[in-house]
Every structure is written in C-alpha cells, then in structure tokens.
Amino acid sequence: MQAGRDQLIRRTSGRGFATRRRPAPLQMLASVLLAAALAVTATACTGDGDKGGGPSFQGGSEAEEKPKASAEITAPAADAKDVPAAAEITFSSKDAVETTVELKNAAGEAVKGALTPAGTWLPEKALEYGTTYTATVTATGDDGKPATVTNTFTTMAEPKNQVRVTSFLGDGQTVGVGMPLIVKFGRAIPEDYRDDVQRRMTVKATPAQEGIWHWVSPTEVRFRPKTYWKANSKIFYKIQAGGLPMGDGWYGRADLTVDIKTGPAVIMTVDNKTKKMTVTKDGKVIKTIPVSLGKKSTPSSSGTMVVIEKLKETVFDTRDDPNPENRYVTDIEYAQRLTWGGEFIHAAPWSVASQGRTNVSHGCVNMSTANAKWLFGQTRVGDPIVVKGTERKLQNGNGWTDWNMSWDDYVDGSAIPVGETTATPSTEPAVTG
Description:
six-stranded mixed β-sheet, mainly beta, four-stranded antiparallel β-sheet
C-alpha cells in the first residue's frame, strides 16, 4: 500500500546490530522530520562524488580543497562477517547539509531502503543470507564538496533456528472499527528482545490515527488505536522480522505484510437497566433491539468486547458444565462470539417473551430470530459491543478485550518507552504512535 503524509506510522528499529544502546527519547506523537540541523536524504540507487575514496583536487592547497563535511559508518563494521540479514546501516556525518546512503550487493545491484527517524538506514526487506554488500555514505557540506566512506560486510549463513511470524488477519479483509491487529510468534520472544521486534513492526493508516503495540504474552502482540479505528480506513502493517535476532540463537523466518480496511462504524451498546441494545452506524442510531441477558446465577459480562467470530448456524453443547442445571445441547442461529468463555449474541426464539423485560440466559445476549438475523447482516468481525450494568465485570483476556483496558494501561504493554519516537522508514514527515 502506498504511504501518504496522513498515514499513521508504527515503530521500527533505531539501532544497529553492533550495539545494544537505546536511541534517545523524542517527543511522542510529534511530527518526525528527517531533516533537522543536519539535512539527511536516502537513496537506493545513486550517490554523488568519487565512490573510490574521496574527492579529487584540481588546484590550490590541499587544506583549501578538503571537504568541510565528513562521514562515518559505525555498523556493520568494515569487513564484518556473519552480519544478521536484518541489519541496518548506522552512520554519522559532520558539517553536512546533505547525506546520502547507498547499499549494493556483490553484483552491484542497488538495495532499496530508507532512513528511519533515529537516523539509521533500513533496507526495505531482509538482506540475502551469505551475501556480500557494500554500504556507501556520502556527506556534502555547504562548500558543495562530497566526502565519501565505504564499508563492505557479509551476511550470515541462513540459520537453522527460525521463528515463524503470523497474522490473524489476511490481505483484503474488511473488519470492524474495534478490530485489534494480532501478530503471533512461533516461539516466545525474550523480554530483552521485544523492543527490537517492536521497532520493526509498522502500522500505516489512512486517515492517520494514534495507536500503539501491546504485548499480550511472550508469543503475541497486538495493536489498537487510541480510539476506535475511523470508518472506512485503509490499514497496512508490516513486520520486518526476516533475519532479525530474537534471542537464544533464534532469528525471524521472514517479513510479513498485511493490507486490510475497516467498514462502517457499527457499534452496539447494551444497557441492563433497559434490557435493550442500541445499534449505531457511523454515529446514527439505526435500531433498538429488546434483549435478555444472563440471569443472576450466570450473568453477562459488563465491559467492552468485540465480535470474535460469526456463525450463521452452530450448536451450543454445555454437557461438560460442572453444574447440571447449565447442561444443554441446543441448535443456535446467527451467533456472534464475544468471549472465549462462551458469551454470544444470538437468536433465542424461546426467550422472546422475556426480551426487554427479564434476564433468563446463561450469559449470552438473547434476541428474536428476526432481530438476530438483521444484526448478523450489519456486523463484521471486530465490531465493538459495550455491555453495561450487569453483576459481573469482563475479565481482561476473556476475548479480544483490548478496548476494555484504559489507554494508559494499554501503553504500559509496549516494549518501547513511551517517550521514544520511532516510525517506519520514510523520507516524508510522519505522525507516530
């Protein structure tokens, strides 16, 4: 997906693999300008000046002709071997008004990439294993004279231990405005490596929206915006995991990209006092539905949930429930799962007389078959539902409960310090989350 200036940008790596130091914090949610006191640009294919080792002199003393600017490549080190395939170019320049970075393979082919806000140069995708590359950094001062430095390095052989990275969502899906982006790893990521991984996880949304990654467990990380996704947003996320060290001699197997979009903003609100569900679409009420919630012995959960799955027909089988009174096998229509514990929205023709009056369910949101069918046709996986006023609070983790957490608590689950600004490689200003 083509990035634009209004796009939300996720966090990417701000360090080279030769060091474990952290980049200095910047102001969160500020516009990142890649050209500040030092104007830096990135090129994938061209660079000015003599690539063989410096400028030529055509007259006058050497002191007068020496370029004012200078450059240095700090990682990968010159002639380095066994460099991870996820390596980026860490460099510095002095007294430069423009700095260009170029990376080529042994065949002289240019590698696409761009600058990160931290000032490193990151390839667009993982480098090839067992391949020699040449990095060239050219700094030009206000005197117009270029100073060039070149480093050659070789990437490591393909590792045997590789961590698979997967996304719950796939390309082309349209989801609800409460859908978290869910990424899973085939192996637990040690805590000391989660910030490295998170810096390589990029989210771009059009229109731009503030958001952050939250580690649910050592094998799962999710992203949500501060407020619900805007209706009809385009969302692209990328995990540059290929060749990335993930601890204990394990490396990311491959990069991952996903392109999705959101549909209209369909939001359901259930109030236990009125025993009614109010359905809004893009901010307007489109229907009010009588419901019956969980009875006192099996109350529905109060909190913010999202639709996890939709089943036009299914069977509820609770014969393994420890309470004999709660055991049953029933055919169900228009079921929409809300929790892993078994709370659904679904058609319940047997409780129509109680709907809007009394709670008689085993924790589900009951409604008539006609209303359940209508609602089923309006919703998508990821649409949010807020239930209020019941005897039981929703337990975080019982479903996709990302919206049941405060924004501050969600931010606390990030592996990157709140004040650190990172973004996807880009030569354009970017809003970060």
